[in-house]
Every structure is written in structure tokens, then in C-alpha cells.
Amino acid sequence: MLSVIESRIVAPIPTPMPRRAFQIADTTPKCTGVRCSTCSMQQICMPRGLSPAEMTRLDSVICSTRMLKRGETLYRAGDDFQSVYPVRTGCFKTVVMHRDGQEQVTGFHLAGDALGLDGVCTDHHSCDAIALEDSVVCIIPFDLLELLCREVKVMQHHVHRLMSGEIVRESGLMMMLGTMTAEQRVAAFLLNLSTRFKARGYSSAEFVLRMTREEIGSYLGLKLETVSRMFSKLQKAGVVDTHGKEIHILDHAGLANL
């Protein structure tokens, strides 16, 4: 109902512009020998049906990883767009800052999701991406990804699907903010996480939230007190059981029918 991407205007430049190194967290990419072909998130963030030769070609592009500690920033709004970052492990939030300095959460990104494509449109990132726990991302230089898409049509189609999925996600979020009650927003948020965890091979009924209630409220357009009140209301209704950040969905159908 809510999950990462955009489109790009390619400037008429004959050769790719040199990309500067980030100066946030640990900025030295390390070729660790980690490959897409051995990653447990392969079926989530990459297309199915790649031939062995195509997978080898993909592995040649995805050769670097970057580790971030909780609270570290992968990139900031205004940074030059250089790469796409599939999340290998961990969880991130993307945020934009209002003029008054308040933070607006625009998304939560789990292992298997792609970060960074917000920069395709203008060649600069439009938000900050911050680790909610110790995390690892793969680094895919976008110019190499473009070349790969020309060679491997399955990959090109996958990137198009990611971009289309982001359009659908954002339109769904707008509809939710404009038409749903506070209770329905929190219910939809939990169901979305449940679906995404299930797709990754985890329990769809029991999981731990990596984000705070305040961050959930920022994403859903609700005050912290309202989010806490809605969690209590759902627990009293017998559809969820909460213990801090631990969530146990007791009644999926009941949660969906709110």
C-alpha cells in the first residue's frame, strides 16, 4: 500500500561527469567480493529469470558495499546523484526538511528496497536517507546501471517497474492522507509492513518496528500522541498486541476491515 523511485532527464553531455565522493559516515566503498548472486535479498531487489551470463554481468557492476551505523546518513538532500543503493541488511528512513527545520518522513525502506533514485530527476538527491539501525547497502553506479539496462532488457524492465512502483506508492500515500482516519492510517501502515516482511521470508504477524512512534506519525501525518492512542485502540480492539516496538498482528482481516 505504501513501498521505492523516479525518472531521469539525461543531460546532453557526451561523457559521464566525474562523481564526487560522499563525505557522510564511512565514504570509502570496499570491493568485498559480495555478489548479488549470493545475496538473500536477490529475489526482492533484482529481476527473476536472469541467465548465468547476465547474473555474472550484474555481479560485475555490484561489487561494492557500504556499512552505516544507526543514525548515519547515506546521502543528504542536494548531494550529487551518483549511485543507486539496494539495501542489503537493515532499515532506512528518507526525510525532507521543512523551512522551519521540522523533519518530514517520506518513506521507510527495508532490506531489498532501493535507495537513491530520487536523484534521477535532477541529478541531485531530494531527501536525506538515514539508517534506523546498523545497515549495509550495495553501491551501483547509475551510469553503469544504465549501460547494463541497454545490454540486459530484463534489467531495464525491472528498473522501469521500480520507477512505476514509486509513482503508485506516492499516489497511494496521498490517497491515504486525504481520505483515511487516523486509525485506518495506522492499520494500513502495519498491514503494509506485514506484507513486505512476508515477501522477505519473515513472519507477517510478528515483527519489530525499527522506527519510533514519532517517525511513524511524521510519515502518516499524525501527531505522536495520536499514533500512541491509535496503537492502544487497536490493542483494545483485539486486532494487534504491542509491547514497545514489538508488534503481533492477531487479526489480519479485522485490521484490514477498519
TrEMBL record:
Give the matching Gene3D superfamilies: Jelly Rolls, Winged helix-like DNA-binding domain superfamily/Winged helix DNA-binding domain
Q: Which part of the chain is the HTH crp-type domain?
A: 180-253
List each copy of the Cyclic nucleotide-binding domain by range.
46-116
Q: Name the domain of life.
A: Bacteria
Entry keyword Iron-sulfur: no
This protein's UniProt keywords = DNA-binding, Transcription, Transcription regulation
Gene Ontology CC terms, in alphabetical order: cytosol
Q: Which InterPro entries match?
A: cNMP-bd_dom, cNMP-bd_dom_sf, Env_Response_Regulators, HTH_CRP, RmlC-like_jellyroll, WH-like_DNA-bd_sf, WH_DNA-bd_sf
Looking up SUPFAM superfamilies in the UniProt record yields:
cAMP-binding domain-like (SSF51206), Winged helix' DNA-binding domain (SSF46785)
What Pfam families does the entry give? cNMP_binding, HTH_Crp_2
UniProt GO MF annotations: DNA binding; DNA-binding transcription factor activity
**Which CDD domains does this one have?**
CAP_ED (cd00038), HTH_CRP (cd00092)
Q: What is this protein called?
A: Crp/FNR family transcriptional regulator
| Species | Caballeronia terrestris
